[in-house]
Design brief:
Length: 313
């Protein structure tokens, strides 16, 4: 099966009350772990690449790794998505370079300018058979090149979404309802709570339209504990409660982004192995364990959070 766009994925997810996992990839082990878990659970997936990942691993290497995953897992639909494209040029580069979906994130600009930039990307992408995600509202937190202070973040305004979607022709919309980038999403002692009231207002404004949640990692405390017990220093790492993400997946949310949880699983495995075996220097010895952790994270998300198990059939 070749790479697909997210159009059919999102239609089925919306109607079926589940969400597609959009997992960030940076290297071979992460690609393998995600696609092996999805293949075993017959789940459609989105493999997404950030600007930071392209700088680290090179666009061509990442595309070829995904193509290899398609050969190994021909039974599941896989989309290749650009995460947080900063401008038209990077989106064009990914459209021309084999991606089936791109995100243009012009949320830092005023509303009308966001529309103008997004529309330009949509027109080019659609002419080449590629779908587009855009963003309204700004999420706090840090992830690769995305850095937004809490005081500069803002919830998506429901009254703006219909005009934005109509004028841009975008295919899906990332909204800000209380999620946050990175592993340090919330202050200690606070109870994270997504703004489902905003989500439901947006659903009413654009019924049937696929919504995306960024910054949706839950920061598994078992991996935080392993990291800290083996030389790490992750203090007050707190994520989004998974029961809230499952509730979101039952609504108009068709795509949920997960990155930090994968990083935590991989790092926990590597730290634990190297701490227990200081004589090890073969990357295969510690990356094998890290990869297994990432696979376990993805399998758990598919089965217990996203609800996408068996939806590839």
């Amino acid at each position: 099966m070749p790479l697909v766009t997210t159009t059919e994925m999102f239609k089925k997810a919306y109607e079926g009350g589940y969400a597609i996992g959009a997992f960030n990839v940076n290297n071979m082990e992460i690609v393998q772990a995600i696609t092996e878990a999805a293949g075993e659970l017959n789940s459609p997936i989105i493999l997404q690449v950030s600007a930071g990942a392209r700088k680290y691993a090179n666009h061509t290497y990442l595309v070829k790794l995904v193509e290899a995953a398609l050969i190994e897992n021909p039974q599941i639909p896989i989309a290749l998505h650009l995460d947080h494209g900063a401008d038209f040029d990077i989106c064009k580069s990914c459209v021309d370079g084999g991606f089936t979906s791109v995100m243009i994130d012009a949320s830092k600009y005023p509303f009308e300018e966001n529309i103008e930039i997004t529309k330009k990307v949509v027109e080019y992408a659609h002419d080449h058979g590629v779908v587009v995600e855009a963003e309204l509202g700004k999420l706090a937190g840090i992830e690769d090149d995305v850095k937004v202070k809490a005081e500069d973040s803002s919830y998506t305004q429901p009254e703006e979404v219909e005009e934005f979607v109509d004028k841009t022709g975008v295919d899906s919309l990332a909204i800000a309802i209380g999620t946050s980038h990175g592993a340090f999403k919330f202050k200690p002692g606070t109870k994270p709570q997504l703004r489902f009231d905003i989500l439901h207002e947006i659903e009413k404004k654009i019924p049937g339209f696929p919504i995306v949640l960024h910054g949706a990692s839950s920061v598994p405390q078992e991996y935080v504990k392993i990291i800290n017990e083996n030389g790490g220093a992750l203090k007050d790492a707190i994520g989004v409660p998974e029961d809230q993400l499952r509730e979101a997946a039952r609504s108009a949310v068709c795509k949920i982004n997960i990155d930090s949880d994968l990083r935590l699983g991989l790092t926990a495995g590597v730290r634990e192995v190297l701490n227990q075996h200081p004589d090890y220097f073969d990357p295969r010895q510690y990356l094998t364990v890290g990869r297994a952790n990432v696979k376990a994270v993805v399998a758990h998300k598919i089965k217990d959070v996203l609800g996408s198990e068996g939806k590839a059939l």
